Input
Amino acid sequence: MQLMTKEIEEKAKKFPFDSQDGKGLDAEILVKFFDPTGAGTWYALEYDPKNQVFYGLVALHELEYGYFSLEELERVKGSFGLGIERDRHFINKKIRDIRADHIPSHLADKQLTA
Output
């Protein structure tokens, strides 16, 4: 699956690094990536097109904000050799909107603040 599309690249122009500082739970999510065979979910909030690096909320074993690269996501191979996928049906949401329906249940009680 193609993780970065022209549509996402165009949308990302509105979300350079530091563009969502201070928005906290109202930060807008650019794109959602997930491991179809595991627990990993990456909510990209900002993007640097030159270096192909995202900043966002990452739900793996812990829930944390951090940087992750497109290359890094493309290299991951999970069970059955499946790679990371982009959620094509993810409707633009803010961080506050994902708690109930997208944050893994074992992380749902964590406090989300940017």
User: Anything to note?
Assistant: The beta strands are 31-34, 41-48, 53-59, 63-69, 85-86. The CA atoms of residues 24 and 78 lie 31 Å apart. The helical segments are 6-12, 70-75.
